[in-house]
Structure prediction request, 318 residues.
Amino acid sequence: MIAPKNWLPPFMLETYRSTNKRTIDRPEWPNGARCCVSLHIHVDAQTIWRALNMEKLVYISNGEYGPRTAIWRILDLLDRYRIKASFFIPGWTAETYPDMVRAISAAGHEIGHHSYSHTLADMGLTEDGGWDKAVEEREFDRALHILQGLTGQEIRGYVPPGGELSPHSIDILLSRGIEYQAQCAADDIPYYWEIDGKPCGLLEVPTHWSIDDAPQFLYTLIPQMGFIKGPDEVFAMWKGDFDAYYHYGRCLVFQVHPQWIGRPGRLRMLERLIQHIQSFPDVWFATGREINDYWRRRYPPEEVYGLSVDEAAAPARA
Ligand SMILES: [Zn+2]
Prediction:
């Protein structure tokens, strides 16, 4: 089979192959909670349209809707239901909308790293399909400094642009104090990233497309790229997802984007969903960072892998 250009680098394929441990059936959650729910908000704004190569006015205006209109309504919603969320923000967006980033952080939400420009160029993708580590470090640090400078937060969570990692990404993330990533789907509870069968220090807080708003609401003038679903249809699906995650005691990570979820009809749907979830007293609503901190304490890598503390602490790869 011929792999598409710039598809998974061989390093990543090896990593995925080693992730074949059996899941933990009934994980414990804090204070006897039955399951965990987390809201991850990707404030891509205009960058997503550049990443999709669709820099036309009508698309860009969709991106602009996030910081201009949707984000303020979302902050109000979270405040009314006393929910702390994780906001993953590209450096470009933060630089362009600094007041928005300060407001999100001042409201007590977690700020996560989401690349600088939301394109694979952030990871040093070269013309010949290689990956330039120096470029990736420079772009990563550029975004990190912007986010830290605006909020004073220590950044612990990361979502890569376009669902990809370069062969250098994990080294760069770990060297910058990133402890968890939130984009993959190999489990429905957190799991450790492995290199050569050993935990490398990075935790995944997984999500899935079915609980992401883009596959439900992303629409472009190229119809096969996505269709618009009605809020009631998505409510029924997400309510069903929550009920099942609750049944099995899993970690439900909704991944949403202000420019899609923040449209009035959809945000009212999200509010109804929050009301449904909060009608259960034994649900732990947590940020990605809180999940990361809890999981590392309750299920430390040495215990999960049966390693000594030293073995677990040593990165598997130089
Ligand atoms: Zn994004």
Remarks:
- The chain is about 45% helix and 15% strand.
- The radius of gyration is 19 Å.
